[in-house]
Amino acid sequence: MTKRNEVSEERRQFALNRVFGSAPWLKPSEKTRHKVKVFKSGNSLAVRIPAGTRLVAGTEMELIVEDGQFLSYEPADQPKRKFNIAKVAGSATGLQLIAPEDRLFEDRALLAGKEDGNDGA
User: Fold this and answer.
1) Model pTM score
2) Is 108 left (phi over 0), alpha (psi -120 to 50) or beta?
3) CA angle 98, 101, 93 (to 5 degrees)
4) Torsion angle of the four alpha carbons 44, 77, 35, 37, in this order, in degrees rounded to the nearest 10
5) H or E element that contains 40
6) Is the separation of the CB atoms in 63 and 73 below 8 Å?
7) pLDDT along the chain (121 residues), means of 10
8) In Å, how far from its chain's centre is CA 2?
9) Per-residue b or e along 80-101, where b marks 16 or more CB atoms closer than 10 Å to that residue's CB
10) pLDDT at 118
11) CA–CA separation, 7 and 1 (whole Å)
12) Are 98 and 82 in contact (CB under 8 A)?
């Protein structure tokens, strides 16, 4: 690559970084390719995933296969964690119930509409 092409490539990258910095959802995803081999593990097929993929061991994945051809894999939807009330029960000891008279509100006129004399014109 010539010096001129290197400079124009640097300018292009700088401009793209400015755009993507203000709109990160536009940034193209990074893709890497790894050569792997399918092998038999018990009654199943298996693939070793290289360590450089930043995946975590034990992550449940969903494999997408169409017409017998491997397409991709993505994390499976994890069940939502349930809130454990036992961990917080009794921790807010200073709270008091609201008195019944504090639960009542007086009627008031609405601020917009015909009730305040404004007919919208």
Assistant:
1) 0.35
2) beta
3) 15
4) 0
5) strand 38-41
6) yes
7) 66 68 65 84 88 82 81 75 79 84 85 58 48
8) 42
9) eeeeeeeeeeeeeeeeeeeeee
10) 52
11) 10
12) no
